[in-house]
Amino acid sequence: MTALPLVFDAPKRGLPPRHLADLSVEERRTAVTELGEKPFRANQLSNHYFGRLTADASAMTDIPAAARARLGDALLPPLLSVVRHVSCDDNTTRKTLWRAHDGTLLESVLMRYPDRVTLCVSSQAGCGMACPFCATGQGGLERNLSTAEIVDQVRAAAAAMRDGDLGEPGRLSNIVFMGMGEPLASLRRVVAAVRRITDPAPAGFGISQRNVTVSTVGLAPAIRKLADERMQVRLAVSLHTPDDESRDTLVPVNNRWPVDEVLSAARYYADVTGRRVSIEYALIRDVNDQPWRADLLARRLRQHLGQLVHVNVIPLNPTPGSEWDASPKAVEREFVRRVNAGGVACTVRDTRGQEIAAACGQLAAEG
Ligand code: SF4
C-alpha cells in the first residue's frame, strides 16, 4: 500500500511575533531588560497574563503608562481573536473559532462536567496526518501554532470560566491536546506550552501536570522524547486498530512507525513517568469493531503495557460526506466486554459537542 504524504513540520510562515507566553521566566526577564526596563516588570506582566488572565496591556495600571505601552507592544502582541462561539449540551460545551494574526483559523472546545472543566486545545492549524475518518485531516496542515497561540487558548478559557460564560463561575481544571493537529509533530512548542500551563503562577497557570493529556497518532521517537521531559502529563495514543494492515490505512503514519514500535514507545513513556497510558480507539462500523480485533487489541496491549494501560473507546463522530459511521451499540458493548475480558481496562468515552461539529475528529475551522 502506498503511504499517503505526511507533513511533519509546517513551513514557518505565519507564526506570530514573539509573545510573553512563548518565554520562560528567565527569558521574560531578559526580554524586559533588553527593552530598558527593570527585570521585576517581567513578573508584573506575568502576574497579569497568567494570574489575572488578561492580555490587555492598557489594563495593567500598576506599570507606568510609558513602560506599559512599550512592554505591551513588544511582549503582548494580539494573538487570537474570536470569530464566533457556538454552544450546545445546555451551554456546557462551547466551541470557539479563532482567527490568528495572519488569518489562520483554528478551534478549541471548552467542556464543563460536574467534577471538572476541560479545554481541548489545538496545537496546529489543520493536520498533516491524513487520517481518512477525521475532518481536520481532510484539509491538510496549514501551519504549526506558536507556543503562545496554544497558551492563549488556555488563558481565554480560564477567563471565560472565571467570568461565568458557561453558567456558574468555575475553574478550568483539565487540558487535553486533542484539538486540531498532531501535538508531537510540534513537540518543542507543545512542551513549552505544557510548562506554561502547569508552572505555578505567575510563571504559568498552575494547572496540575496530571490534569494535562497530550495525544498522538504514534510518532514513536517523539513519544520517547516527551517521556524524557520527565513531566507527569498523561499520554493518549490514538491507536484505532491493533493490526498494521488496517492501521496503515486508518492512520497513515503507521507506515512509518508500526503498532509494535508505537506500543514499545508507549511502554517507555509509562516506565519513565509511572503513568498509565490511554489508548484511544474510534470505533467504526465494520472497519475496526470485529470481536477478533478486540481480542487482538487486548493481547497486544497486555504484551507491551501490562496493567499500565486503559482503552477509551470513542464512538465515531461522522464527518460530512464520509462513508465511515459509528458501530451499533450492541457491537460496541461486545467490543468493550472482550477487551476487558482480555485483561485490559476499557470504557466508552462520553462524547460532547457532536451537534456543533466540536467532537473528536470533527474540527474543521470553517470560517
Ligand atoms: S485524527 Fe488527529 S492526527 Fe489524524 S488527521 Fe485528525 S487531527 Fe490529525
UniProtKB/TrEMBL annotation:
The keyword Cytoplasm applies. The keyword tRNA processing applies. S-adenosyl-L-methionine binds at residues 181-182, 215, 238-240, 317. It is found in: Cytoplasm. The active site is at residues 107, 360. [4Fe-4S] cluster binds at residues 127, 131, 134. It catalyses: adenosine(37) in tRNA + 2 reduced [2Fe-2S]-[ferredoxin] + 2 S-adenosyl-L-methionine = 2-methyladenosine(37) in tRNA + 5'-deoxyadenosine + L-methionine + 2 oxidized [2Fe-2S]-[ferredoxin] + S-adenosyl-L-homocysteine; adenosine(2503) in 23S rRNA + 2 reduced [2Fe-2S]-[ferredoxin] + 2 S-adenosyl-L-methionine = 2-methyladenosine(2503) in 23S rRNA + 5'-deoxyadenosine + L-methionine + 2 oxidized [2Fe-2S]-[ferredoxin] + S-adenosyl-L-homocysteine. Residues 113-355 form the Radical SAM core domain. Binds 1 [4Fe-4S] cluster. The cluster is coordinated with 3 cysteines and an exchangeable S-adenosyl-L-methionine. SUPFAM superfamilies: Radical SAM enzymes. Its cofactor is [4Fe-4S] cluster. One of its GO terms (biological process) is tRNA methylation. Its main location: cytoplasm. Its EC number is 2.1.1.192. Reaction proceeds by a ping-pong mechanism involving intermediate methylation of a conserved cysteine residue. This is Probable dual-specificity RNA methyltransferase RlmN.
